[in-house]
Predict the structure.
Amino acid sequence: MTDEREAPAARVGRFHVITDETLQSRFSHGEIARLAVRGGADTVQYREKRPLLTRELVAAAREVADACRDGGAVCIVDDRADVALAVAAAGVHVGRDDIEVTVARRLLGDGFLVGGTANSLEEARSVFAGPLDYIGVGPIFGTNSKANPAPVMGLETLHRIAAESPVPVIAIGNISPDRIADVLGAGAFGVAVLSGVTCSADPRAAAAEYRERINAYLKDAGVTS
């Protein structure tokens, strides 16, 4: 059995870890990336919301990109297409308030991944028309990483988005390891995790638990990759 949702973008991973230095102070972006990849993350998204200088963003993103290259994972930069280009990342993830996906695609070209964001079915439908490789949707169960989060989406809305989406759907939002089967069963191609790995005392072990749950679901579902 194969998963038809793999077709739009073969490089879109099933397990994304998002880095953050504001929710914890033990690990740098680069350290989180290395530990997460060792634990089984196939994609790491460099996420920095502080108003840092561009050269500081590039320096940190380069550490993440190097960690991904060393571990055979994909590096995606949140928000900044210019930083993604500067560190030769695999792509960029643009949020609701960032540049349009069409602009990101024009800047990066067809050889890069471009991910979009949707916090509702209506938003997802408006984003589907863009030149995307995947769409991040949520929060599925809530979030602790944003001051003013969007309403909780839930599994039913996730299922509806996944059923209509022409590209792989990556679910995010308080997804613990024991919820992996429910989220993938609702139609998500993969999951993105922030605090579940980044804020763990042992990010490698935390990532390994997520990877194990993902692999177990895919095996039980008869999905080959």
Observations:
- Strands lie at 15-18, 43-46, 74-78, 91-93, 113-118, 134-137, 169-172, 190-193.
